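Practice problem. Given the sequence and the SMILES for zinc ion, write out the predicted structure.
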Amino acid sequence: MIWVGILLLTVNCHSQNTKKTMKKKDEAYWKSKLTPEQYFILREKGTERPNTGKFLHHKEKGVYKCAGCGNELFTDGMKFDSHCGWPSFDQEIKGGKIKKSIDLSHGMRRVEITCANCGGHLGHLFDDGITETGMRYCVNSLSLSFEKEQVTHQTEAMKITLGAGCFWCVETIFEQLEGVLSVTSGYSGGTTENPTYKEVCTGHTGHAEVVHIEYNPNVISLEKILEVFFTVHDPTTLNRQGNDIGTQYRSAIFYHTEEQRKTAQNIIDKLNCEKVFAQPIVTEVTAFKVFYKAENYHQDYYNLNQEQPYCKMVIQPKVEKFTKKYQQLLKK
Ligand SMILES: [Zn+2]
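Answer key:
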């Protein structure tokens, strides 16, 4: 039941990558959109004077686009110095973005290149290139616009601390997710400082057994992490996971940012509202305060103790179910 319900929850609305097509625009449109110089080149098949274009010696990393419509035509890696006086490229971005046609003007037989999307004149294509493709796309700077490559800053890892019953099991599951950088078993949410496992097991420390997760939000979202979280444990049994009973086994999300709190609350509301579980969710959502790392022998426990009966009987079936369902989210 639970599995089917969660599937429903995650029907994403991926934006469709629709192919760009452009209706034919009239001359008034182009006159208002383009500068007179661009209009002369793109719409009247003009040619800019050699050695004058702004992209002639341009060397930044990024994508060259059609100045008329933004169609992506060339990347910086395709540009080379041809010394012909115009920006030159030895190949185009694949996908039929550039149309080629025979141009017999000026008493010559040349191949004209135009933007396949808006019909804007770009320049000509010659087979005298000096790179290994042998081709030279000779393009007017005025026909192009340039988008600089986004410098991707190393995003800071995010942290989330989750209680979902015995941490041996939870740890091994989250470790397998692509984008999860580290998972540490420990204790959180209680009052005793530096508790031992024995103390936590008494239920008197107030701590829950948790996994402290570091993840790269560019690779895996908190939504996905919480989806897995709600799938691999029962969030409806108060202070209990199966035969593990006590506040230390409570279902809990210790959020590190307000954004995470909202996300967690939204997901819980949605699961409750859609009655994904037969009973209401009792997961505690609390601001993170402190995390105490569990004793070393608890770290990576499942992987190191797979033959142990608890691992075989309780953890292994959960892990197998998880890996089957979340194949596409696993580390390669
Ligand atoms: Zn175009």
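Check your answer against the key. The chain has two domains: 34-148, 153-329.
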